[in-house]
Amino acid sequence: MDPCPFVRLIVESLALKLPIATKRAGSGVYPSTTPCFCIIRFKNFPSQTALLPLCTTPSDSPPDTATSTAGFHLDAITLRRLSGKPVTLHLKVYSGRMGSTCGVSSAKLIGNVQVSVDLGGAQSKPCVFHNGWKKLGREADKPSARLHLVVRTEPDPRFVFQFGGEPECSPVVFQIQGNIRQPVFSCKFSADRSRSRTMPSDFTKNRGCMMRTFSGEKEKQGRERKGWMIMIYDLSGSPVAAASMITPFVPSPGSDRVSRSNPGAWLILRPHGFSVSSWKPWGRLEAWRERGPVDGLGYKFELVTDTGPTSGIPIAEATMSVKKGGQFCIDSRITKDSAVALRSPVKGFVMGSTVEGEGKASKPVVQVGVQHVTCMADAALFIALSAAIDLSMDACRLFSRKLRKELCHDEQDSFS
Does the predicted TM-score (pTM) go above 0.85? Predict the structure, then answer.
């Protein structure tokens, strides 16, 4: 199983040093903490924004405090297109608040810097393109702000997989290597309500702490989505991973949406022992429908420890657009929740999976960092997790709308 070449372009150790005169700007322009920000652009990638801490270290010493960005992920196609010629990374530094009011930005441009990046040998070894301070002003005889940054690349090879169809249609999963598509797994989806009996004994006996239902309320038929399960098999037909819905997706009282206070949940399972019916939980995924200006699918994923489900270690939490879909990602560099980042045992990129918007045909593409895969069974866990987040988009569909027939137990709950 050979990985695909990926390179990560990293922009880190960002800090700003302002000349003495600039610090006496009017009130509100330079607040006491993170008063400035920069916008980073690289070729056709979406721009990234980073807050810039002010540096007080003397001379050319490294900054006492700094920040970093998520960086840019370059796949094989991008590397082929950009290799052989230097590519410019652009950074524009602003003072004031980010965003705009009534379409007018209140930020003021301080200056910009450029860094030349040569990706020729980036696939095989780490490269550093800049490490130090850069002057923002163009006039050499006048004091000006300076930006500290480190721009570097590091190889980040990944295994790439793609579902041959929508997970609920029990597709084959292919490994992608350039133009080669090789079948490596098969899936079997079930919407059987009685599937919960296949749960590990360690969790069924603690069902009270795992299953969230409204006390004293019997859910009406069609007002809950439960019992979904997808099994992942290797080419020999042996089960190597599974995702099982352990907590039903039910609407909160008085609404037709799954709320964050009562999310649905999946267990990601791996075989345990020699019995085909013996499974051990590896991870737990919660999902819900976020309220707000943008309708979103919220999710939280945590690793399950040997002490049980109540002591899971969260490693990913975010929201993606229900309309447009997005990317489910486990990556310590883009984790916005500092508490999650501090507790997470993972560093760098772990996995990413595409998720289509609600009602759109989905064939998830899954990327897994090579350091997290020692055998095919390891890769299968990420395939099961990818299927679970994709199916959660359907499970969190408003209950006033029908599901497709593959996801339903009752004919009247579905559309063809």
Answer: no
